[in-house]
């Protein structure tokens, strides 16, 4: 990548990120996202996901710098040598999940998820879900707090906290992980091909309402949710070679 890139700096609302934004714009200039070559979000993983959802349609590479509490998807913040770092960065290509949710009211709502789609009970009552894979019912009834479908990039986040597997980047698989399952007691989830169509049906939506969340976009009172890997949308994250995303995901499997 050329070192004369036009950069679009984007910042979360924290004081540190706002101060860094001002310093970087003064030093490197500023372009609107639509006129830039590279997006540079400043913040944590939450702000990175906001950036991907807001500007992912532009198809631009994204080089994030950590100025937040969690920065798994970010590079370390340093003001010096930014153009050189971006020019030497290694790409990680992510393909998001597409969620289509049907609600009790009859609405159809779609959203993308770069980390995970999660179905969660809305009340004290456990959710009752049926799971179909490619049109075939694989689990007649899952009773519990919910279930997660996670990408490789998102497998170290909410999925891992629910005892789901960490998936290598580029492995072509997704994780299906139950959240506090009560029945079946011994089911711990599955690893699926990334092109699998996953469909959840809420078995008792009035007594046991369920919400669906794609990254941070929540849809309440769902009755059916279909999830598949996007075929036409990708995003490229850029990482410093000494600590790229593939290495980070691998390293997470050896944290004790």
Q: Features of this protein?
A:
256 residues, Rossmann fold, Tumour Suppressor Smad4, alpha+beta, 2 domains, 39% strand, elongated
Explain what you see:
The chain is of the alpha+beta class and 256 residues long. The protein folds into two domains: 107 residues, Probable inorganic polyphosphate/atp-NAD kinase, domain 1 (Rossmann fold); 133 residues, Probable inorganic polyphosphate/atp-NAD kinase, domain 2 (Tumour Suppressor Smad4). Helix content is 17%, strand content 39%. The strands form three sheets. Strands 5, 6, 7, 8, 9, 10, 11, 12, 13, 14 and 15 form an eleven-stranded antiparallel sheet that branches. A hairpin with a 4-residue loop joins β5 and β6.
Outline type: elongated
How can the largest sheet be summarized? 11 strands, antiparallel
In the CATH scheme, what's the topology name of the largest domain?
Tumour Suppressor Smad4
Q: How much helix is in the residues?
A: 10-25%
Low-confidence stretches: none
User: What is Rg?
Assistant: 19 Å
Count the domains: 2
Q: By helix and strand content, what is the structural category?
A: alpha+beta
The CATH H-level superfamily of the largest domain is Probable inorganic polyphosphate/atp-NAD kinase, domain 2
CA-CA gap between termini: 37 Å
Summed over residues and divided by their number, the pLDDT gives a mean of 94
- Please report the first level of CATH classification, the CATH class of the largest domain: Mainly Beta
């Amino acid at each position: 990548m050329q070192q004369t890139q036009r950069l679009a700096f984007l910042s979360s609302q924290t004081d540190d990120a706002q101060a860094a934004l001002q310093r970087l714009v003064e030093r490197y200039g500023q372009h609107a996202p639509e006129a830039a070559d590279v997006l540079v979000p400043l913040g944590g993983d939450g702000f990175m996901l906001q950036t991907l959802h807001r500007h992912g349609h532009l198809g631009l590479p994204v080089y994030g710098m950590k100025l937040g509490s969690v920065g798994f998807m970010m590079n370390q913040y340093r003001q010096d040598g930014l153009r050189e770092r971006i020019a030497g960065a290694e790409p990680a290509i992510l393909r998001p999940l597409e969620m289509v949710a049907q609600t009790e009211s009859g609405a159809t709502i779609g959203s993308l998820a770069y980390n995970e789609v999660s179905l969660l009970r809305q009340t004290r009552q456990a959710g009752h879900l049926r799971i179909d894979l490619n049109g075939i019912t694989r689990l007649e009834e899952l009773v519990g707090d919910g279930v997660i479908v996670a990408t490789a990039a998102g497998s170290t986040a909410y999925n891992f906290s629910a005892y789901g597997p960490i998936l290598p980047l580029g492995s072509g698989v997704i994780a299906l992980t139950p959240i506090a399952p009560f029945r079946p007691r011994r089911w711990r989830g599955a690893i699926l091909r990334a092109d699998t169509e996953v469909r959840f049906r809420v078995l008792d939506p009035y007594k046991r309402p369920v919400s669906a969340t794609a990254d941070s976009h929540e849809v309440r009172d769902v009755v059916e949710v279909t999830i598949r890997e996007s075929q036409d949308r990708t995003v490229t994250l850029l990482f410093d070679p000494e600590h790229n995303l593939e290495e980070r995901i691998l390293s997470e499997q050896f944290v004790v």
